[in-house]
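Format is chain and fold; as here:
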Amino acid sequence: MSALLPVILCGGSGSRLWPLSRRLYPKQFMALGGATLFGESLQRALALSEVRECLVLCGEEQRFLAAAEAQRLNAPARFLLEPEGRNTAPAVTLAALAACEGGEDPILLVLPSDHRIEPQSAFAEAVAAAWACAKDGHLVCFGIVPDRPETAYGYIQCGASIQAGFHIERFVEKPPLEQAKHMLEQGNCFWNSGMFAFRSSRWLEEVERYAPAIAAACRAAWQKHQHSPDFTRVDKAAFLASPSDSIDYAVMEHTQDAVVVSLPAQWNDLGSWEAFYAVSPKDARGNALYGDIEAFDVRDCYLHAEHRLVAALGVENLSVVACADAVLVAHRSRHQDVKRLLEHLKSQGRAECDLHRRVHRPWGSYETLALDGGFQVKRIEVRPGAALSLQYHHHRAEHWVVVLGTAKVTVGDKEVLLSENESIYIPIGERHRLENPGILPLVMIEVQSGSYLGEDDVVRLEDTYGRLAP
């Protein structure tokens, strides 16, 4: 049996799930209901009997989130970093080049990192059917049997049967309602799940034929790739020369060897708050409630509270999602327009588009507690054994107060240990570093003061996590 290599794509931003999902902390890494969607995707792939490891495609900014989740689950995975998102076709082309390193030619099982699929047995059966087609050179899509005329999904219209699947006649991208109803009545259509299977060499052949600019840019980027113990990087300048395109548009709509196999499972891409409402348990009035919610005379609503009480009175068919720094209130019928709303907020330069108040870093996290004029107050948490970079600032001074644990602090040429309720001052321009030498989390309050308090006023001199500027 040919080797099967799952390729987990986790570069999406989940913009329709704002305000919980943000550019630097997208939906696939959020713990919604206990597990992350990325973690579920890893476990689903590794549960297949023929799989030994996964290849994870992610961006520089999310690499430590992905690695930490794989480590938490003890999931064997390699990490290939995209310098910048260029949609799925360039990402999979990099994955195919990486998979062929050393003369191997596995079948790639391309999986988004934000799907929910049940039961596992149905997924495994569909993968076996796709493998049977892919080993003979076909490029396989996984199709979901539609149960309603959904306008938010792409469709696959199938023709004659072949092996365990069907030839693909055409792809239809998010049809209007009447066309979706007609296709559902015809009965020869699937929803396009965005999951694929094909031999690495076959993908490279077809992308060379139908998207040569993507193929050339990715080959040039891969030629200068560098391995580190944790991540593989490709040449940024070469990769950014690639056009941005999807697997469907770049190759699958053109190749003569496209096949679709049925995935008869409960499937949801969880791409909107309406999708979360659909899979959530409901109360007697049809409400899906998460967090600290008080609902009076409320019907058919999705109410999600983070960090605060949300009280609703006399409303229906709303989605309300409350975070520490932003609240979304939308009619449930407008779930596809959240992305448009987010684009408007981006045009206003709103930081809430990219960041939560709690920002994750490879060493831990920080949360902004107050920001006004020339000062900022942060809560900093450092994992046991972790350390921030050795750095200095041009425009701000800092005052650190230890709240919990022990801090090892470098200031200039001095090193000191600080315990709870002890503090230290870092002058402007002084090199400094914060470390947690203990076995418990280190929690500190940082007070910044200066003429400019942006995160880009950090000059790193040494860094454990490879974040030095080139």
